[in-house]
Amino acid sequence: MDASMFRKLHDPGATVPALTLTIDGQTVSAEPGDSIAAVLLRLDPPFSRTTPVSGSPRTPYCMMGVCFECLASVDGVASTQTCLVQVRGGMRVERQHGRRALTMAAPEDAVDPRDGMQGGVSP
Predict the structure, then answer these.
(1) Domain with 82 in it
(2) What is the average pLDDT score of the chain?
(3) Which residues, 6 or more positions from 31, have their beta carbon under 8 angstroms from its beta carbon?
(4) What is the band of 66 on the pLDDT scale with cuts at 50, 70, 90?
(5) How many domains does the structure of the chain reveal?
(6) Nearest to residue 35, comparing CAs of 72, 3, 2?
(7) Residue 48, domain CATH
(8) Residue 37 three-state SS
(9) CB 3.0-4.6 Å disulfide test: which of 19, 29, 35, 58 passes with 89?
(10) pTM value?
């Protein structure tokens, strides 16, 4: 595939200021009001994540927050529904590959659910 089948349509003669954001380390132009998912659809390839089991690429689908196919990491926050987030200048977006990595708290920072004390040690 040489280019995405999605493109932005404009009113003739309209000038719209461009924003720049970074997707997978590459600078991309967008316009105020665009969702991140819409920007991803205009890229080649137009996927936002890969599945945890088979690694197949998934593309934003419903564009209204129902299907969860548009998940990506936005400004360090994994599994963000990109169809619900409007672009801002300087955003960092990364496509998610496979399952989301969870960060576990260090044992000394852990909170014991029985008493709410840090370190899991009761007084």
Answers:
(1) 32-95
(2) 82
(3) 8, 16, 17, 18, 19, 87
(4) very high
(5) 1
(6) 72
(7) 3.10.20
(8) helix
(9) 19
(10) 0.71
